[in-house]
């Protein structure tokens, strides 16, 4: 039987092992054993325990002990000791949906709906050279790191351009290379695009090119530095994906035991488009084409109806909730209904900024407003939202047994929170205080695989100052050119 190029790619990708890169080994001369003493440990384990005046030990990349400080120190007498008093340890946050280069549009994309209703002559991203786009993407990654993100999903096309710089941050990465194959409409869907739309037509060439990008990226980067980088396939958007593309994306994921993702029900225009041309709503279209499943994390789900929620729940599909961006765009996705139906929830930032604390703050407020509880303001609790940001994220990135909680045997991906702050003192519930009142600057240090990638608010992996200088100059140039056409007109109430 003659195999197609795409079938051959699947087999090749499955047979290629991790490349022998070890970027961080040279720069990390710290002790292989570390002990954090006399500290608060927010475990996010199944019992959601908060341990007071305790110690946590790390050996190489793993958590090896949690318990009484004297006992842990006795077990690891040669460890590098870090005083954890007035500190709290939390599992690293997992950002399951980000478009990093869009940081150039920060302060613009937040205020004009979705898709952006304000028509510039050119989008801000189109002003960027390839090198400049990489700088902006790296800046967004650093913003996320300093806000406690240890694992990030970059969801876009052409990730190969930025990959080498992004991995230098030391974070754990999922490169979700995004593909589409429609030729008759641009996306994401908008009222104008829907009004002007015609019946979808799809291109095998576009599909082949997209799957080749996924395969090439997977061969080059999947498994980098002991598994710190994964490469997942992504169908771009429901309305831009043929049944053939959906099948090929899932087949690649299944063959290589990967997660996979898609944008789904971002807008009412998308729902209208799918109903007009496919006769079903977006999630049902995915179900009909065998795309839903426990390793799919579908972004947004903003306009899902009861039938779609049932299909998502029955298939055990994970939903990534971009709460802050949804709120900016005036949408309150049916997260409470999705959660109550049994769907697993993860969190992401989407465009513009990569501050996961902001996402958690917004997520808890949106859902409390949405729920009609007997006592308003009681559900969800901060522990629920941390579980979304950590355990839900770990499920989405296919690492539930390795990250997402502070437990013996798991990876030492965690953040060190400075609790000695006016807005956090006093507090008998530090997690609640931080989610409701905290700031990213409360994070003192960040570790991935037991290595400090930020220590005492200073990055250990790259020169933040130089990066900021370059990014600032780019922003000045881009927005200077945009505003040469006149100021942006702001709507008034």
Task: Briefly characterize the structure.
The chain is α/β, with parallel strands linked by helices. The protein has helices at 5-15, 69-75, 130-146, 163-166, 191-195, 204-221, 224-227, 243-256, 268-278, 282-288, 306-314, 323-328, 335-340, 356-370, 382-396, 430-437, 464-483, and strands at residues 33-42, 50-59, 62-67, 80-83, 87-91, 93-98, 149-156, 172-179, 229-237, 260-264, 296-300, 318-321, 344-347, 414-418, 443-448, 451-455, 458-459.
List keywords for this structure.
TIM Barrel, nine-stranded mixed beta sheet, 17 strands, disordered N terminus
Question: In words, what does this structure look like?
Answer:
- The protein is of the alpha/beta class.
- The protein has a domain at 93-396: Metal-dependent hydrolases (TIM Barrel, Alpha-Beta Barrel), CATH 3.20.20.140.
- 36% of the residues lie in helices and 21% in strands.
- The chain contains 17 helices and 17 strands.
- Residues 1-30 have low confidence and may be disordered.
Task: Summarize the SSE layout with pairings.
Elements: H1 5-15, E1 33-42, E2 50-59, E3 62-67, H2 69-75, E4 80-83, E5 87-91, E6 93-98, H3 130-146, E7 149-156, H4 163-166, E8 172-179, H5 191-195, H6 204-221, H7 224-227, E9 229-237, H8 243-256, E10 260-264, H9 268-278, H10 282-288, E11 296-300, H11 306-314, E12 318-321, H12 323-328, H13 335-340, E13 344-347, H14 356-370, H15 382-396, E14 414-418, H16 430-437, E15 443-448, E16 451-455, E17 458-459, H17 464-483
Parallel strand pairs: 1-4, 1-5, 6-7, 7-8, 8-9, 9-10, 10-11, 11-12, 12-13
Antiparallel strand pairs: 1-2, 2-3, 5-14, 14-15, 15-16, 16-17
Helix pairs in contact: 1-6, 1-8, 3-17, 10-11, 14-15
